[in-house]
Description:
- Helix content of chain A is 61%, strand content 0%.
- Chain A is an all-alpha fold.
- By secondary structure, chain B is mainly α.
- In chain B, α1 packs antiparallel against α2.
- The chains are: A mainly alpha, B mainly alpha.
- Chains A and B meet through α4 and α8 of A and α1 of B.
Amino acid sequence: MWQYQKMVQYPVRIQNPDPHMAKLILTQYGGPNGELGAALRYISQKFAMPNETSKAILNDIGTEELGHMEMIGTIVHQLTRNATPEQLKKAGFDAMYVDHGLGIYPSNAGGSPFTAAYIQSMGDVRVDLMEDMAAEEKARRTYEYLIDMCDDPDVLDPLRFLREREVVHFQRFGEALRIVEDKMAEKKLFSANQNNMK
Amino acid sequence: MSCKCREALMDEVRAMNFALVDLKLYLDTHPGECQKISIYNTFVKKYRELVTEYQETYGPIVAEDYISDCPWEWISDPWPWNYCERTGG
Lengths: 198, 89
């Protein structure tokens, strides 16, 4: 189960609205490399994990991703705070506005709704962990593209934090994969006579 | 109520929570590192103290770990996604 903590993982305090940047950052909420996909991927994959490390790492990183989803929602919400229809129109947020107002909807930057087709769950620890490492790298790159598009320090600060988390998660998934592969590569001794083992 | 002191204390709670989250992931893949576990345990104690201080002063962080006055305090603003100006701290 989950328990809510009434705080965001990293402070988000965005003074100036910027609906255009909000629209771009929304892709990390419900886009192909976004936090919703990440959380759903890891929390779904965990059930088929064979060893303690991979169960724990998928559960715990999946949990952190839920917190990142909340951070992205917070950033998008604050970037559109008090924005007038005129400002929204000028920023190219008008298509988003007519479909969702200032509500946060899980879509990519172009408005396409989130789909579970963004993720996989294959019931195989090596296959899943390799997908997860790729997912972290894709999310890291997306944050870098967003950082390229952004010049507001209030927005850059949480984006940089989230980018760094992708790097750490990639590292942890790699370690989990190595633990699994080392175990698989161990030489096994089979014996019909238990006395031989003494 | 001003956001100033609340936000400064919340930043401390958040920082300690982050230390725990990050170290937890490390320990998931390095479960035999006793010295790191001992650092983790020290952080847990500090985190508990900070959460207690925050909750006693400003209200609940975890509803299931908070004795509320009437009216029900859990619903009080600000919620984490609300913009809160930081003026110091």
